[in-house]
Each structure stands twice: as C-alpha cells, then as structure tokens.
Amino acid sequence: MEKSLARYIWKNTRLQQLWILAVVAASMVPYFLSFDLPKQIVNGPIQGDGFEGPGARQTFMHIAYDIPLIGHVEFFQGLQLNRFQMLMALSLVFLALVVLNGLFKFYINTYKGRLGERMLRRIRFELIDRVLRFPPIHFKRVKSAEIATMIKDEVEPMGGFTGDAFVSPALLGGQAITALAFIIVQNFWLGMIAAGIVGVQAIVIPRMRKRLLDLGRQRQLTARELSGRVGEIVDGIGTIHGNDTSNLERADIASRLGRIFSIRYDLYQWKFLVKFINNFLAQVTPFLFYAIGGYLALQGRLDIGQLVAVISAYKDLPGPLKELIDWDQMRQDVQVKYQQVYEQFNVEPLIDSRIQELATAPVGALTGAFVVTNLSLSDDSGARLVDHVSVEIKPNETVAIVGPNGSGAEAFAEALGRMVWPDSGRITIDGRDLLDMPESITGRRISYASSDTFFFHGTLASNLLYGLKHAPMTDPVYDEREALEYKWHSAEAEKAGNPTLDLNSDWVDYKAAGASGPEDILKAIRPVLDAVLISQDILDLALRSTVNTDVHVALGDHVVALRASLRDRLRDEGLDTIVVPFDFDAYNAQATVGENLLFGTMKRPLMTNRRLAAHPYFQQLFRETGLSTDLYDMGLEIAENAVELFHDLPPDHPFFQQLTFMTADDIPTYQALLQKLQSRRFEDATPEERSAIIRLSFAYIEPRHRFGLLTNELMEKIVNARKQFHEHIPADLAELIERYDAERFTPSASLMDNVLFGRIAYQQADASDRIRGIMGELFDALDLYDDVLSIGLEFDVGSGGKRLTMVQRQKLNLARALLKRSDYFIFNRPLSALDQRVQDQITRNIIEGLHEEGHRPAIIWVLSNARLAEMFDRILLFDRGGLAEAGNYPELSEKNGMFKELLS
Known about the structure:
The chain is α+β, with helices and mostly antiparallel strands. Among the domains are: 368-471 and 798-901, 3-Layer(aba) Sandwich (Rossmann fold), CATH 3.40.50; 600-735, no CATH class. This is ATP-binding cassette domain-containing protein.
C-alpha cells in the first residue's frame, strides 16, 4: 500500500492531472488580460487618452507580431473606432473575458470533482479489497464499526483532495502570481507592499495552523473510537441489560462526548483566531494601497487607471491566496488521515490476491486426502491450542472428532476449514498447501459450519443460496436504455480501478446444488431443509405471510380447493369444530368484534384502524346503527373488569398475554379514565375518551376473554351493521378494504387466514399445531408445498439474521453448508443451541442423506455427544491440544481409555 497520499494520487491519475494542468496554464492568459483591460478602459475612452482631437479614432484589435527568421507578420489590421465605439468594444471584450474565465473555472472544477469521485471510489474499493484479504486473526483485534467508519467517512476528504492535489496549487498559485506580477508591473512599490503582506500570510498562517492539524487529528481519533464504542453497545446490548450496566455505558459515552466537545471547542477557538489574523492582514493591504497609491496619484507618479487596475487586481489576490493556504492545511490534514488509514490497513501478511481470483468455470472434485503434518495452533495471546498434531483424512471417509471443551478439537476443525492459520506445520491436499489453494476450490469443494453464524440482511433464500454465489453465471437482459447505462457504469468502474462484474447477473451456481436452474432449485433445497429440521419453521413463516398472487399464481388458483379439502379433512378426523368459518350472515364468535364488523382486511399501510375510525362514512354508520353507544358501554365493562382483575399484578405476569386489548402499561391510564367517567354517559366523554374506550371492544373475543359481554342482540346488531357497511361502502374505502369471499383469494390476508377462511377455536388444545400439520399435508397432496416453501424463503432475516432464533440460525447455517454438495464437510459443533435429542437426529439425517446414490463425501464432525461417533468410520480424540487416541468405535469403546470415559 502506497505510504504517501500524493504519490498514490499521482500514480493513479497521472495523465488526467497533466491534462488539467495544461488547461490551468491556458486559463492564465485570459485571467491576466482581465486585469489589464480596466486600465485601458479608464485611461482610454473614459479619460480620453488618445482621443484628444475632434473626430479622433484608435485602432482596435490590431494583431501583428515580429517572428524570428520571418519578420513582421500582420494577422489583422484592426478596426478604426471613435471614443464611444472604443468604450463599447473594450467593455464587450471585458465581458467576453469574464465569461471565458468563468467557463475555464466551470470546466476545471467539474473535471476536478469527477476526478476526485473516481479516486474516492478507487480508495474505498481498495480498502474493502484489503479487508477481504486480511488474515483471520486480524479480525479479532479490530472493531468492525471503526473499519466501517474509516472507509465511509475518513477517506471522504481524500476524494475531494484528489482533484485539488496538483491543480489547486497550480491554479491558485498561478492566479496569485499573475495578480501580483500585474501589480508590480503597474507600480514597483505597491507590488512590493502586496508581496510583503503575501509573504507574511504564507509564513505565519501555516505555522499557526499546525495546532489546528493536531486538534483535527485528535478529533478524528476520538470520533472513530466513539463509533467503535457505539458498535460494541449495539452488539452487546443483551450483555448490558443482563448485567445492569446501562448506566456504566452512559457514563462512558458521556465521558467520550465530553472529550470530543473539549477538542472541538479548542478547534473552533484556534480556527477563528487564525481566520481573524488572516483577514486582518488581507484588509491592511487595501488601506496601504489607498493611502500610498493615492499619494502617488496626487503627485502624478501613478495615473488613475493604474491605481484602479492595481486595486482591482488586488481584489482578486486574497481569494486565491486564502484558498492556497486552505489547500495547504487540507493537504496536511488529509495526509494525516491517509497515514492513519495506511497504518490500519497495511496488514501483513495479506491473503494473496491470486487466491481470490474469479473463476467462472466449474471446479473439479478434490480427490486427494487431507494430510495434516505437525500442526500447531495458537490464539492471539500466544496460548497453544493444538500442539504438533499429524493425521490423514481420506476422501469419502467419515471422521468424528471428540474431546472436552478446550481440548483443541474445535481449533483443529477451524484449521481444516481455513478459519485460522497454523503457527507451524502444514495442511495439504494432493500435496498442495491448503493456504495456497484458490478460494474458488476451497470455497466450493470444502464446506465448513460452526455454531458461530452470520447472515446478511436479506431473505432466507438469498442467505441459504449464499454459498453458491461464486461468479456471475448468466448475463442479465437489458433494454437499449439500460444497456447504455450499464456500459457507462462499467466504463466508470474501469477508470476507478473497480471490477466490472454485473451484480444484476444471476450468480447462483444451480448445478453445484444439483439443480438445472431457478425453476427446480427448490427440489434441491427441500431435502436439505428437511434434514436439518427447519422445514416446518419456514412453513410457519409462509403461513404468517401475505402472498403475491401475481408471482404465486398456483396458490391463488387453488385456495378455494384448499379450503374445501381442509374442511373435508377436519370432518373426517372429527375435528370439524376446530375451525369456525366466516359467514357473511352470521357472527363468528372466535373472531374479534372489529373483525366481525369489518368482515374483511385492510390494505396496510394505506389503511389503518385509526384512519378507518376517522372516516366520515364509518362514523356515520356508527351513529345510524347506535353501535357507538353499545360499544362504548361494552368498552367500559371491559376496562372495569381488566382494571379490577389485573391492577395488582406485576407487568410481566403471564395473564397479560391473554389481554389482546390492553397492555400492563395501559392499566393505570384506564384506571384514571374510569374515575373520570363515573357517570358512564356517552355524551359526557370527549371524542378522544370515547375512542379510547370503544377501541377496547374492537379486540374483544368472548370465548377467549369470557367477560360475558356479547349478547345475541348485540351480535345481530353487529352483523346488520356489517351488511350496511358493505352495501353502501364508498369507492375510496372499497379500494382499501378487501371483503372476505369464500370463492376467491384475499391478497391482504395471510396465507393461513386464506386457507382457514375462519378462526381457530380457542377451546381446542394444540389446535394451531394440528391445523399447521394438516395444511402441510394438503400442500403436499396438491403439489403446492414448494410454492408455499418459496413464500417462507422470502422472509427477511433482518440485520445479522436476528429476526431468526439462535436455533433457526444454526439450522440454516448448516443447511447452507450442505447445499454446496462439497467433497469435504467440516462441522464444528454446529448445533450447540439445540437440545441433545434434536442434535442427534439432525446428525443422523445428514450422515444418511449425504451418503446415498453413489455420492459419498468426506465428513469431519466435532461432536458434542461422543455416542454418535458410532456412526463414523474413524474417531479422533483430542485432549489438551494433542491427539490422545485414534481408531474406530469398537476399538476405542472397548479400550480402557479416555474415550470410554466420555461414553460413560
């Protein structure tokens, strides 16, 4: 990595810098002329110099030069203009120079910006590329938030500086020298005054700004440390809550913020002191020009045109000079930042870039044995984890690794999976060192899974197929506009040193998973999900999801058949009372009052309960049917019962789980509201109080809450109101509310609600589990299981997969490894969050599932249960970092050794 930022910029933008410097040099010509022209206008047409006689004329734009070896050459004789014409002509030339100088600045600044953005893109990519090549042990020493902050924020000024690195000193210095030279040409002593002030500014101000640089460096370091500390708090929030250390963290953050405040306050004070001195020096010069230049003009030693031109030229001198000083400060500041980036990312030894080269061609199977020779491993503190272990693991062999925690078994498996690098010794396959093999081989032909899981923000499917995304397998289809846009982006990526790989391509290697394409990938996925016992979890996620019938057409077409099949199945098993179906003419006792009233679902987020309640049509319906008063009285009864029963219970009491209409935090609120509404009259309550009371009735379910508040008369009234609601519903509401229909699919309802078309009876024990089991069988019978599974696979797992449970994450992690169909599978206690019975079942499923149909990969498994070693060809027993015993299950179980102790 280049240590000097200036050399890094020149190395990567040399040709562009030379071009823009040539443009800057060309821009100095009209810049100088724009200084001289005001003098000509004042002395000539305005004061009359050269126009003394009546009808006097002067030549305008006479272009002639004396060229060596050629002589006098006249290009243009010029035009003869009177005094007024000359004034207009010179003024128009001045305007043209102003426009030309502006265009030069526009082009230079635009080019600089584009150059800077390319360099910023290049720097960020190279840093991330280096992160991908860091040795594994280095990640234990750095905080991810600090690395992210450096790449995102701290290199940002480097991109802006790239365009200014060589252009700004040339442009600003050229402008300052041009203005200063022009002043000296007009009057030597005024020029010397300006030069003296410039010299003071150039020497004093940069020296004062050294303190600013030091404070800026401290601010950057403390801000980065704060970012890393915040990242630690987010990652360790469970530990903080579990140990009551939130106030310790608040104190730590407050201390860090105080330190940052102190640094920034000092920075502001010093910054504005420097600005004050700089501005003072800049304003002293005009005073001297007016005083001394005016004196010389009074003496006749300086004409008015020269004085105006000098003042005009100096007006443009402080700007470039100030910007040049600012550039020097930015140069030093950015160099400091780059130095810190260099120190953070200049890690040795990096993974060789050739190991991570793109390989689009299929990779052949590994036919050689894993040969471990004199392997030793240590942690980052130097403690020995594995001590001089030598072993050979053959292809197609199943090996169980057992041993207590800390025995070295886990570290040995990590070394085989290339998660850690050996201190000494070697791991080879076919004579090739494992660390020298391309990741296109190890990442495809060797699968590794441990209890540590990580999933990227995205769907279950994208994370499950992540292990198959090695290279773009097909090119995307673009229309003409998209093709041009992609071509432009590719050209820009190439200029910035970025790869031109198209993310919109299909990167999934379906053949590696045993599929021919996206159409049949589910057939390859499903056995893997069944093996790790996660299929039911994904099915549950699908049942709770809404379905896009434009994508899942078959489900929308078969939903009516599914409802009928479910009813028939429940009837055959004597479970016909487990589900109460929706009936437009009857009240569904298992549904809430709100569901019965609406008899449909709202298209969220376009329509919500609050918006519906505020709709004029809905309010009119309540007034006409008298439901406002009925539901208000019902809400009061609910509030009184809830407050009476639960006001003395702690907030975490399990009884609150039964309250769908009120939380533990709401109890005090409704207690105070009931005291206020002692008259119980509807008219005495404010609109907000009525809404708060009526809201309770909407979530009420008689069989669940059992307050005895739903009479036959009230249920009939709700059904009649429902009919009236849908009969005269306005168009704007009809678009946002989907009425239940037994003959069609309801897109805004969940899949389970669509299939049930009713509500599960609360009185039935385990009703929900029995229904889900029957639904799974029905999906299979109608060949819809894969379609439903794909809906579950669209579930967003959240940041780091945190929307999944730890058990689900470990199962999914194992499934991802299995889907690659590798030659070597290394499982390092991958299911530690599961109970032993489930671990044993999944282990048996995987061993039996991988070794069938002539495919027999090698399996290396660090077991938590030594008894499962009976299923493996060979056993390696680790103890205190060494290989204590090795052999098959009968040998070691009969031998009076350590393995027999583990079995007992």
